[in-house]
Design a protein that fits this description.
Strand order of the largest sheet: 7-16-14-9-12-11
Helix content: under 10%
Number of domains: 3
Number of helices: 1
Shape: extended
Largest sheet: 6 strands, mixed
Radius of gyration: 29 Å
Strand content: 35-45%
Number of strands: 26
Distance between the termini: 67 Å
Structural class: mainly beta
């Protein structure tokens, strides 16, 4: 930070309490500057939580911050265990029309502090209640680091209770304490699933990597949250109402984009949990294309069935729509592939597929409806 109330405009390394509009707390204060070009470099050493300010100035041009001399150091541990993921420049100027600022050459070395993050395969785990256990993996961004402990909390919004619904031998009070060895590539913790034989909706445990032991030299990385979904084995399929499903993305004819296979993609989410055995019907057939209150059947209609654990409300689901008919017409790709696909085309065996036309098409998702269907040849059926 440059400037402060009064006549002295020092360069300050500060920390905020309550955000940018909150209280400013000085860590380092140095010099008095006005219209100079400033080259500033800040370093942090986890040993002793030592912050160092390197600074040089010029009246003509910017220089290289790497050549700036050390001007001051101070110890401060506030926020060093928190995941601060964003950076930027703020010019809080007065109303004077002649004021301006230039921020140039902002650089954060990628290897400044080793980080610990949830592996991409562990950010979302969905299991049935009769599963024995599931393991979460955390990755280190550097091969060189000290031994230590990662501290993982359970979010207050979790609906799965510990130890009634799941457990871990690494629980110490309300935290999961995950030890790791020096230079280990990963750290892991395992949750055991409790089958209570009760019929209940899907339950969630929300894990957050809060901090890493101070002496390890490890910071919390950018991917610091994970979700465990526990679905009842005997849960009933979800029942939807109009408006429960929202389509958030459609790609038609991806072949034209990447030169690969001819397929479409569609992403959506639901405002309700999608429980095991939930069925959705997808079609690109037109409504009242030939006759009032009738559906055409010259294109594809398929029914997909959820075969895996529950997908929580709000989780984005992505499907690939291939050029194949039958069971391979719809293939789920996210958050997992645990869906089956069956053709509802009429007559049975009609070799049509659901596939979007990149020049314009319609697509409908629905559940539990019986549709009156008619094609251009006046063939009528019910599905």
């Amino acid at each position: 930070m440059l400037g402060e109330p009064g006549t002295i405009d020092a360069v300050r390394l500060v920390r905020y309490t309550g955000g940018l509009t909150g209280t400013v707390n000085n860590v380092i204060t140095y010099g008095d500057y006005g219209s100079e070009y400033l080259d500033i470099r800040v370093t942090y050493n986890p040993t002793g939580n030592l912050w160092s300010l390197y600074l040089q100035s010029s009246t003509t041009a910017f220089g290289n911050p790497l050549t700036a001399p050390l001007v001051a150091s101070a110890a401060n541990s506030t926020y060093t265990g928190s995941n601060l993921r964003y950076t930027g420049a703020l010019w809080n100027h007065s109303t004077g029309g002649g004021e301006s600022a230039i921020f140039d050459n902002i650089y954060i070395p990628s290897a400044c502090t080793p980080g610990l993050t949830f592996n991409s395969s562990s950010t979302y785990k969905s299991v049935l209640e009769n599963a024995v256990s599931t393991t979460f993996t955390l990755d280190f961004s550097s091969a060189t680091h000290s031994a230590g402990t990662a501290y993982i909390s359970v979010g207050s919004a979790s609906t799965a209770a510990h130890p009634a619904d799941y457990n871990s031998t690494l629980f110490v009070g309300s935290l999961i304490e995950v030890p790791f060895a020096a230079n280990a590539p990963t750290a892991t913790f395992t949750t055991t699933i409790v089958n209570d034989a009760l019929l209940e909706p899907a339950e969630y445990a929300l894990f957050k990597l809060d901090s890493v032991s101070t002496g390890s030299g490890i910071a919390v990385g950018s991917v610091f949250e994970a979700t465990l979904v526990i679905s009842d084995v005997a849960t009933v399929p979800a029942l939807f109402s109009p408006g429960d499903l929202v389509i958030v993305g459609v790609n038609a004819n991806n072949f034209a984009c990447n030169g690969g296979l001819d397929y479409d993609e569609i992403s959506f989410f639901c405002f309700k949990d999608i429980t095991p055995n939930t069925k959705l019907i997808l079609t690109d057939n037109g409504y009242e294309r030939c006759s009032a209150t009738k559906w055409a059947n010259s294109e594809g209609t398929v029914e997909i069935t959820r075969t895996g654990p529950s997908i929580p409300a709000g989780q984005v689901i992505t499907l690939t729509i291939t050029s194949s008919s039958g069971s391979g017409n719809i293939v789920a790709v996210a958050p997992d592939g645990a869906w089956t696909c069956a053709s509802l085309n009429f007559p049975s065996g009609l070799n049509t597929t659901m596939q979007y036309n990149s020049n314009g098409d319609r697509g409908l998702h629905h559940a539990g409806w019986h549709l009156d269907q008619r094609d251009e040849r006046n063939t009528q059926c019910h599905i």
